[in-house]
Amino acid sequence: MAASGAYEIEQAASNSNHPNHTVQTRAPHAYLRWRNVNARHRDVLAAERKERARIRSEKGIRWGGCPLRAVA
């Protein structure tokens, strides 16, 4: 089924309760406008990730979410 992606989009559009296509496209467009206005800068996001990683490493927390046990 090569056209399954298009079919899914048509299903999502046909299952909506908007009166017409113009009204239907306003909600996603409004969300995209909001997302673009409220986007944070890449450098800020990278700095936040780095800080969270530093805190995790100080606590000894690894991928599992639990601190490492002290080896006796």
Structural descriptors:
72 residues, mainly alpha, 3 helices, 64% helix
Report what the structure shows.
Residues 1-28 are annotated as: Disordered. The chain has 72 residues and is mainly α. The chain has a domain at 17-59. Helix content is 64%, strand content 0%. It contains three helices and no strands. It has helices spanning 4-14, 21-37, 42-59. The protein starts with a helix and ends in a 13-residue tail after the last helix. The mean pLDDT is 77.
Structural class assignment? mainly alpha
Shape: elongated
Quote the beta fraction: under 5%
User: How many strands?
Assistant: 0
Mean pLDDT: 77
Chain oligomer state: single chain
How far is the first residue's CA from the last residue's CA? 58 Å
Radius of gyration: 22 Å
Provide a count of the helices. 3
Helix content: 55-70%
H/E element sequence: HHH
Q: Which spans of ≥5 residues are poorly predicted at pLDDT below 50? A: none
Largest sheet, described in full?
Answer: none
Task: Give a quick precis of the structure.
With 72 residues, the chain is mainly α.
List the helices and strands and how they pair.
Layout: H1 4-14, H2 21-37, H3 42-59
